[in-house]
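Example 9 (inverse folding). The structure is encoded as follows.
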């Protein structure tokens, strides 16, 4: 069942005030490397960001008595906020010097950091730009493998690359929450294969009513509160 379709569910993404709003608020920082001469392809950046979220959630430092476990728990108990910023050159090298994990795709590099207080960003991350993360696909993405997890984007929403990266991360996280420990381990051991694709407009309604994990955005940036942004279609959840 989706975390986000039942009105009584205390979802981390719903726009209505819930008990999650009373908890201290944290944000998961993601930094995408965008060099002027070699920007990553948009779809690869989205997929790499989603994998980065999963890599952090599956890291031993994020669970049990790990060094990041407490802040990850605090973040997941509140609104699940993610903010994507961009860096290049010296900015990227400074970001790599902070505790975190760099995940590399075909053309994209994304560094994910343990959650930080909403108003307590490290200065080397706080100075990075949020806006202007606009990327393109040099060639149309190939058709997604139906046997692998697919994060379907709402085809009717025009989102910047940074916004779409955060939404893909939300979708990956909801899928992770729904899986058993064995299913999580299998996905992690396989390297978190996944695809991010815009859904066929004719199929979007079917996907949102399928019972698969569904992200409803809180509407802090770019799109209206409550907008359905991503359906997380993992084979184990079908």
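The amino acid assigned to each position is listed next.
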């Amino acid at each position: 069942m989706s975390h986000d379709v039942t009105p009584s569910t205390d979802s981390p993404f719903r726009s209505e005030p819930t008990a999650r709003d009373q908890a201290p608020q944290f944000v998961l920082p993601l930094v995408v490397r965008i060099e002027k001469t070699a920007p990553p392809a948009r779809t690869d950046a989205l997929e790499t960001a989603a994998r980065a979220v999963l890599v952090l959630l599956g890291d031993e430092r994020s669970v049990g008595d790990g060094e990041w476990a407490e802040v990850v728990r605090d973040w997941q108990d509140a609104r699940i906020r993610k903010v994507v910023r961009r860096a290049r050159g010296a900015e990227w090298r400074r970001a790599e010097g902070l505790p975190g994990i760099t995940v590399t795709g075909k053309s994209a590099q994304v560094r994910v950091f343990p959650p930080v207080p909403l108003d307590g960003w490290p200065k080397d991350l706080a100075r990075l730009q949020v806006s202007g993360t606009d990327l393109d696909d040099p060639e149309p993405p190939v058709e997604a493998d139906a046997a692998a997890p697919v994060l379907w984007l709402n085809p009717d929403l025009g989102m910047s690359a940074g916004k779409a990266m955060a939404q893909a991360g939300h979708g990956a996280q909801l899928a992770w929450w729904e899986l058993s420990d064995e299913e999580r381990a299998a996905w992690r051991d396989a390297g978190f294969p996944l695809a991010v694709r815009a859904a066929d407009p004719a199929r979007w309604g079917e996907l949102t009513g399928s019972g698969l994990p569904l992200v409803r955005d809180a509407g802090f940036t770019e799109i209206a509160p409550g907008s359905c942004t991503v359906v997380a279609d993992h084979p184990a959840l079908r």
